Amino acid sequence: MQKIFLAISIIFLTSVQVAAQINRWSVSGTVMDKEGKALPSATITLLDPKDSTLVTFGVSNPVGYFEIKNLREDELLLQVSFVGFSSFSKVIQKPKEISQLVLGEIRLQEKTADLDEFTVEAIAPVTIKKDTIEFNAGSFKTMPNANVEDLLKRLPGVEIDADGNIKAQGETVRRVLVDGKEFFGNDPKLATKNLLAEAIDKVQILDRRSEQALFTGIDDGQREKTINLKLKDSHKKGFFGNITSGYGSDDRYAIRGNLNKFSDQQQLSFLGMSNNTNEQGFSIDDYINFQGGLQSMANSGGGMVRITVGGPGGGQSPIPLNNGQRFNGIMNSHAIGTNLNKDFNKKTQMRSSYFFNQIDHRITQNTDRLNFFPEGDVNFNENSFQDNMSANHRLNLILDHKIDSLNSLRSTTNGQYTLSDGLVNSVSSNRDQEGNLLNRGERSNLTQGDNYQLNTELLIRHRFSKPGKTLSANLVFGYNAGDYEGSLYAENEFFGTNPGLEIIRQENFQKNTSFNYGGNLSYTEPLGGRKYLELVYNFRQNLNDVNREVYDIEGENRVFNQQLSNKFNSVYTYHRPGANFSYNSRKYNLVAGIALQATRLNGELLLFDEIIRNSFENLLPSLRMNYGFSNTKNLMFNYQTSVTEPTIEQLQPVINNADPLNIYVGNPELRPAFVHSWRVNYNSFDVGKFINLFASAFVNFTENAIVNAQSIDERLVRTITPMNVRNSLMANTNINLGFPIKPLNSRFNVGPNILYNQGYNMINELEDVIRISSLGGNIRYDYNWKEFVNLGLSANINRQETAYDFSPEQNQLFFNQNFNAELGVNFLKHYSFLGNFNYLKYKSRTTDFNESIPLLNLAISRFILKGNKGEIRISGQNLLNQNFGVSQRADVNFIEQTVTNNLGRIVMLSFTYKLNSNLNPMNNLSRPGGGMRIMRMMN
C-alpha cells in the first residue's frame, strides 16, 4: 500500500509540475553601452503594462547576458536600467511558436541633461552599486508598525539572533547608519529597535573601509560590515515616530517611544523607555558598561567577584541558550536619550548623542557543577541571589572640520559616568562521588561605588598635492577614576580529616585613578604603478594608581589586613614603529606589514615594598589580501600577529579572597602571549537569483598562552594563579547558504559550523591537554505571501565534546537545541496576529541533566484611526509560564548546568500611536509596497 501511495504521489507531483510548465516562456538579451561594452549587474524589470506593478526582475551576468524564465503573462513591459545610463523600455509579447523571446543586444545611452517628458522608473528589489548591495525596503513586506529589525529579517543574507545582533553575508554588523550618519554612536540596536520600518526607503549593506583608507584613498584591506538606512523623502518633511504604552498582569508595564526629525542637513531624535518586562533597547555591551564600576572593582580584587576558570578559548558552547534570551532574572529598565547630527556647512559637521540608562536586575540562580580532578570527581552546588543596580550617563561628540581641500581636523570625545550597587548572597557545598559533604559555605557580598571615564582624540590630516601622499597625526587622552566600598561576610565549614569553621567579616575601600595619553603618526608615499608605502609610529603611556584597603571586623574594631590590601602605582609605556606596503589593482589589493612592539612596565607595590619591572619586544608581521571576482563575489585573506601582555592585576602577588573558597593570586613571572591569527572569508551574492553564500575559516595559534592554573588543598579550597603554558589552538569554520524557492514564495537558509579548541590546563601542577570540539549549525525556512502571511521555521543545534588526556573516562558530551516557529497574519484589513513558539532542549551525556523549555508568545492587534495610526494590542508572553532559564557549558575540567529565574506568564493590553501622517503631508502620496514609482518630468 505504501509503495502504491508513493507511486501515485510521484505521478501526481510530476503531472502538476509538467502542467505548471506548459505555456511558460522566457526572455533573454545582452545589455551593453553604446560602444558595445558589456554592462554587468544591470537591472532587468518586468512590469504589468496595465498598472505598472512589478511582476519579476533579474540582473545581467558579468558579460551582460540575462535570461528570465517561467513567465506566464501574454504581455509585459520590459525595462533595463544601469547606474549612470538612461533606462530602456519596451513592451514585449509572448512568442506564439517558441518558448523563448531573444532580444539580442540592448544598448544603453549615458544620461544627459535632456529628459523625456514622461519617465517611468521601476524600482527593483535589489541593486548593485560598486561594493554596495542596496535593497528597496518597499519590496520586502513587514507587519504594520514593524521596526527596522523586522525589516532586516526579511532581507536575503541578513540574520538577526534572539538578542538582536545582526549578521549580513555571514559577518557581524558593527555599525548602523541613518542617511550615512551615526545614530546614537555605534550601537546598532538603538537604530534597528527604535526606528519604524515604514520610514526606510533603501537598506544598503556595504563593507565600510577604515577612516585611514577613506582619507588616503589607499585601500588598506580593513573592512567593517555596515548597514546604511536611507530614509524616505516623506519622512524628512517633519516629525515622525511612535509611542507605545501597555499594562498587564502582576503589575507589569512597558512604555516606549521615539520622535525623529530628519533632513539632509540635520538629524534630531529623542527616545525613551521604561518597563519591568526584561525588554531591552540597547546592546549587551551597553549593559556590561553599565556594570563597569562593579566589574572594575572586581578585577582589582574588590568585594564582588566571581572567579571563573578559563580553558582553551573559554570552552563554552557557541550557543549558550537561556530561554532564547540574553537576560535572565527579573529586570527593570529605564532609558532616555537624544541624538543630534548637524551639517553646519560643507566644511563642518557635528555628530552628538546623550544616553541615560538605569537597570535594576534581580537574579536567583542554582548551579550544579561536576569537577574532574585527578584525585577524584567532586560535585559542586550553589544557590545564589543577586540584586544589582546601575545608572549610566553617556555622552558622545564628534566634530569634523575641513580647513581646505588638503587639510582637515576631527575631534572625538566620549564621556561616561556610572553609579553601581550590587549585592550577592550565596550558599554552596562540595560533595564527593559517594555524597559525603566535604565543605559548605555561606557568603554575603555588598559593593557600591561610582566611576568616571573620559576619552578624547584629535585627528589632524594633511593631503599633499601629489595623489596618495598624506600625513596624519592622532593625539589621544584618557582619564578613568573610580571610588568603591564593600563588605564581605562568609562562613565556611570543613569536614573530613581536617574539620573546622572559618568566619570572615571584612570591609574594603578602593580608589582607582588612571591616565593614558599618546599619539599615532602615519605617512603614506605613492611608489608608482598602484604601489604605496606607509610608515607608522605609535606611542602610548598608561599611568595607574590603586589604593585598596581591607579591614577585618573583630567585635567593634576594624583591623587593617595588609596581606589582602593593595596600594600600587604603575607606568606602562608602549612604542610601535612599523611599515606597510600595499598594492591596489582593479581586482585585488594586497597589504604586507611589519612592526616592532616594545613595551615597558614599571610598577611599585607600596605596602610590600616590592618593585615589578618587565620589558617585552616582539616583531609583528601582517598580511591582508582582498580579491574581488565581481561586485558580488569577494575573497579575503588576513594574517595578523599580536601580543597580549599580562595586566598589572595578573602580575601582582596579592590575594583576592572575595570568594573564600576560590582565592586568586597574581604571578609576577608571567610572560606575554604571542598570537598568530589566520582568517579566510568568501562572500558571494547572486542578485538575480537571491542566492547568498558565505564561508569563513579562522585559526588562532597562541604561544606562551596564559591560563588560570588551579591548586586545590585537602579542604577543597581552590587557589587560582595565571600561568604560561606552551600553546593553545582554536579553529572555527562556518558556512551560510541562502536561496529562494520563488514558486512557493519561500526561502531557505542553512548554516553549519565547526569549532575546535586545544589547550593546556594545570591542576595541582599537573599539566593536561584538553580538546574541545563543537559541531552544529542552523537551518531556517521562511514563507511570505504578499503582506498577508509571514511564516518562519528555524532550528539551531549544537553538539559539544570535551576530551581530557589525563582521564579519558571523564570526557564530556552535551547537546543544546533550539527550535522556533513564527507566524504573522494580516486579516480583515485592520487586524493582525503574531505568534512565536520556542522549544529549547538541553541534554548532557556526562550527567543526567535533561531539560526542555517550551515558550509561547501570542498577540492580536486591531488598527484604528486614519492611516492605521493607532494600534490596540492584546499580547501574552510566556503563556506556558516557564519562569526559569537554563544554560550548560563545559570548561577545562568541569561541566556545569545553571538554572536561573525568569519572568513567568504576562498578559498585557497596550496602545501604540504612530506619528507621521499628520506631520508629513507627503506620506499619503507614497504608494504602499514601494514597488513602482512614476515621475513626470518637464523639459
From TrEMBL:
Main subcellular location of this protein, as a coarse class: membrane
Compartments it resides in: Cell outer membrane
Domain Outer membrane protein beta-barrel: 462-759, 773-913
UniProt KW Signal keyword: yes
Signal peptide: 1-20
GO cellular component: cell outer membrane
UniProt keyword annotation of Transmembrane present: no
Keywords: Cell outer membrane, Membrane, Signal
Protein name: Outer membrane beta-barrel protein
